[in-house]
Amino acid sequence: MERVFLSVIIPCYNEAENIKRGVLEEVYDFLKGQKFSWEVLVSDDGSSDNSRELIKEKIKKFKNFILVENSHGGKPHALLGGIKKARGGYILFSDMDQSTPILELKKLLPYTKDKVEAIIGSRGVVRKDFPIYRKIGAFIFMAFRRMLILPEIVDTQCGFKLFESSLLKKVFPKLEFFKDKKGKKGWIVTSYDVELLHLIKKAGGRIVEIPVLWNDRDKSKTKGSPLAKYFKESKEMLFQILRVKLNDLKGLYD
User: Fold this and answer.
1) Which residues contact 142 (CB under 8 A, 6 or more apart)?
2) Computed from CA positions of residues 141, 146, 149, 155, in that sequence, does the dihedral angle turn out positive or negative?
3) In angstroms, what CA-CA distances link 184 with 52, 84, 194, 228, 240?
4) Secondary structure of residue 116 in the 3-state scheme
């Protein structure tokens, strides 16, 4: 398998509206001007809208773009589908809505020269573009999480993260998410980021947090009510943080 410098994994679930407004064009236009070798894996999580058809049509004209077709299983499931096929020495997670635009990669790349294992985008403490309920929720989540785990990291949840490939491929399948065999419905996100970063830290990987631009550009209309979805996910994420802490106390990550 021929290696490339960078694999960009874009998870997808019912993203038709975002795809139509040209997000994949934005990614391609940026990457085609770079001097390093790259590939983009759009990893679809069994979308129930016409996302797959739109992606197939779009990437016909894009060099180095690949559609990974998965059964439905949630965001970590889609990411794993991309990770398994990635040929890059580094792997970037980038959300389809491009709320953090791909050009922010320029801020992360310098740390690859020092072979840092995890270079993560951060939206900071003040989320100026969040609705008020998300600002309050983000503050509570951050305070609770930092009290229990990864106190040195401000923002674990930004979807823009760059990883050294070999370590990511080693630890990502160990996430507790993959131990749950129950059927998944909807866009299951969870706080897998917290557990993933904790696993990287336990494995001796270095984590650098870099401020990046973030503006809510998500136009998807088929993931459910934003408010209801947010409160449901927040509850699940808080419980998952507790599980990660308990697993750590039991020595399950050693």
Assistant:
1) 125, 154, 155
2) positive
3) 19, 20, 20, 17, 16
4) coil
CB 206 within 8 A of CB 116: yes
The rounded distance, in Å, linking the Cα atoms of 241 and 80 is: 21
pLDDT for 183 equals 56
Digit-coded pLDDT (tens) for 44-81 = 999 999 999 999 999 999 999 999 999 999 999 999 99
Q: Count CB-CB contacts under 10 A for residue 86.
A: 26
Q: How many residues does the chain have?
A: 254
> Which residue bears the tokens 């943080």?
241
- Alpha-carbon distance of 193 to 79, in angstroms, equals 12
User: Which tokens in the block code for residue 146?
Assistant: 């930092």
At a CB cut-off of 8 Å and minimum separation 6, what does 223 contact? 13, 14, 186, 187, 229
| Residue 128 in tokens | 């100026």
Helix (H/G/I), strand (E/B), else coil: 119: strand
Give the global pTM: 0.89
**Cα 34 to Cα 15, 26, 86, distances in angstroms:** 26, 13, 18
**3-state DSSP call for residue 8?**
strand
- For residue 11, the surrounding DSSP H or E stretch is strand 4-12
